[in-house]
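stage 2 :: seqdesign
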């Protein structure tokens, strides 16, 4: 329940601090006194978007803080799912900064508006005249029926399965799209893949082939140069190795005289070893080199194939061609196996559809069983609210479409007059009748849905006399299991509250401010008397007010 509310620098409110108790609380005040401001501030706590114009003083921030006693409402799982610390006395704070930025906190943990809205739905239900129009909405009507039918668990399971169904349907459609495109491209992709596979592509193959081609294409010139090089090294009279051997021998004789000669000897000897090795390698290359026109033609053919493929696929190296080949292989494979994949996906969907149909049938049957009980309760309450001929005809038909709350199609029909025709609520009921129907529904829902607090904003509009007494009695009964607020202009309802608060305007230093105070017994008598007879209170009004309170 809402146990405390603090508002600073909001609209016409400078600073307001008020505590609330369990039971039936009345809020009254003259038109324009600021009751809507109070609701606006409370709405910010519940996740409504902030407006910089809400600040009374544009230079300082607006702070709205509410304390909720939620010890008996089993909201721990909700706090866990929203990653919040659960506190029996939960504090929600909303700040609007002069810059226009807004911040929200739950038990001092920063939260976003979505979290605030999710939490707010489980803390307080603000029912305004605008909310009455929910009655004509199919989704709200289903919520009423499902609350009585205890369908919450089935609906949760249904929504999980429906989410799977929609996901798999989307994937199936994507498979159909792939199949359609694949059929068009299959032959062309297969041709390209075969072409790449026949090339037997290997990483770094191109460089090796180009080197081999250059060698085979210039074999005579290479042989001539190798032969000449070998002669320069090995000639018996003037070869480099012969002369270098003589140099080594001379330096070897000198090496015993000085370390400097020894170093020279070692260096020349090292060069001799290296050149001798090079000579052997030249000889080996010369022996292994042969003219091979067949191999030259094969290498040239392979190179031209690779060059053509690179140009055709607009790539720079073989690795890119291999990647394209793998992609084409996958496409061709998908194309060839797509029918099998589609059939598998269709089986999965059929399994989900079976589960959905079973849950939908259970939801439907629960609704069918509940409707007579709901109709009877509604008509009984409306009888007390001055609508003795009110009748409901509620029909649910199992359809074929998987809607957000089952497969049922709903006809929620109403007749206000004896012998009258049944019609949709928005056509058959007036504004005052809709308000009474909504109160009847809320009073029934209060028995099935555990909500800490409900606030009725002028739900009594358009009614008076004995009907207002009955409405007050219904709200009193609801307050036995939950906290109920009623913003009202009717003295009959105001007198039924366990506590009474008054919203009023006052001028302080020529600045108009809105405030809220709790009235004691004597102040309640005066307030109700004024509601009965106006500002100039008569003795009869006082007497009537006392009678209503007693």
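stage 2 :: out
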């Amino acid at each position: 329940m809402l146990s405390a509310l603090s508002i600073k620098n909001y609209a016409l409110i400078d600073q307001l601090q008020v505590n609330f108790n369990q039971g039936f609380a009345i809020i009254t005040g003259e038109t324009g006194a600021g009751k809507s401001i109070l609701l606006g501030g409370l709405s910010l706590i519940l996740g409504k978007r902030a407006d910089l114009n809400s600040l009374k003083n544009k230079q300082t921030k607006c702070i709205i803080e509410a304390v909720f006693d939620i010890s008996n409402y089993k909201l721990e799982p909700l706090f866990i799912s929203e990653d919040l610390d659960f506190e029996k006395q939960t504090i929600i704070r909303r700040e609007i900064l002069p810059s226009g930025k807004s911040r929200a906190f739950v038990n001092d943990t920063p939260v976003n508006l979505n979290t605030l809205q999710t939490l707010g739905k489980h803390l307080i239900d603000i029912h305004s005249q605008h909310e009455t129009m929910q009655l004509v909405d199919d989704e709200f009507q289903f919520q009423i029926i499902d609350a009585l039918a205890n369908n919450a668990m089935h609906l949760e399971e249904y929504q999980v399965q429906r989410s799977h169904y929609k996901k798999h349907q989307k994937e199936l459609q994507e498979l159909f799209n792939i199949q359609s495109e694949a059929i068009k491209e299959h032959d062309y992709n297969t041709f390209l893949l075969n072409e790449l596979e026949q090339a037997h592509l290997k990483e770094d193959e191109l460089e090796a082939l180009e080197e081999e081609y250059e060698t085979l294409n210039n074999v005579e010139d290479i042989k001539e140069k190798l032969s000449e090089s070998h002669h320069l090294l090995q000639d018996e009279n003037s070869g480099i190795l012969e002369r270098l051997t003589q140099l080594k021998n001379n330096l070897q004789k000198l090496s015993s005289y000085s370390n400097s000669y020894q170093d020279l000897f070692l260096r020349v000897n090292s060069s001799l070893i290296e050149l001798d090795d090079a000579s052997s390698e030249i000889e080996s290359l010369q022996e292994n080199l042969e003219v091979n026109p067949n191999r030259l033609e094969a290498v040239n053919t392979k190179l031209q194939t690779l060059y053509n493929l690179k140009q055709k696929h607009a790539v720079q190296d073989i690795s890119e061609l291999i990647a394209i080949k793998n992609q084409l292989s996958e496409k061709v494979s998908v194309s060839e196996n797509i029918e099998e994949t589609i059939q598998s996906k269709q089986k999965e969907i059929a399994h989900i559809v079976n589960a959905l149909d079973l849950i939908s049938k259970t939801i439907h049957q629960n609704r069918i069983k509940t409707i007579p009980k709901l109709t009877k309760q509604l008509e009984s309450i409306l009888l007390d609210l001055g609508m003795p001929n009110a009748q409901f005809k509620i029909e649910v038909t199992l359809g074929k479409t998987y809607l957000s709350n089952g497969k049922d199609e709903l006809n929620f029909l109403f007749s206000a007059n004896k012998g009258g025709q049944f019609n949709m609520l928005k056509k058959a009921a007036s504004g005052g009748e809709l308000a009474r129907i909504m109160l009847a529904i809320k009073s029934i829902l209060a028995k099935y849905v555990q909500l800490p607090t409900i606030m009725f904003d002028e739900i009594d509009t358009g009614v008076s006399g004995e009907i207002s007494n009955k409405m007050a009695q219904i709200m009193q009964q609801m307050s036995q299991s939950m906290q109920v607020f009623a913003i009202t202009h009717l003295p009959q309802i105001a007198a039924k509250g366990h506590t009474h608060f008054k919203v009023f305007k006052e001028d302080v230093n020529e600045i108009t401010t809105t405030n809220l105070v709790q009235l004691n017994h004597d102040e309640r008598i005066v307030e109700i008397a004024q509601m009965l007879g106006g500002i100039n209170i008569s003795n009869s009004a006082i007497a009537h007010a006392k009678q209503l309170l007693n």
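stage 3 :: structure notes
- The chain has 17 helices and 15 strands.
- The radius of gyration is 46 Å.
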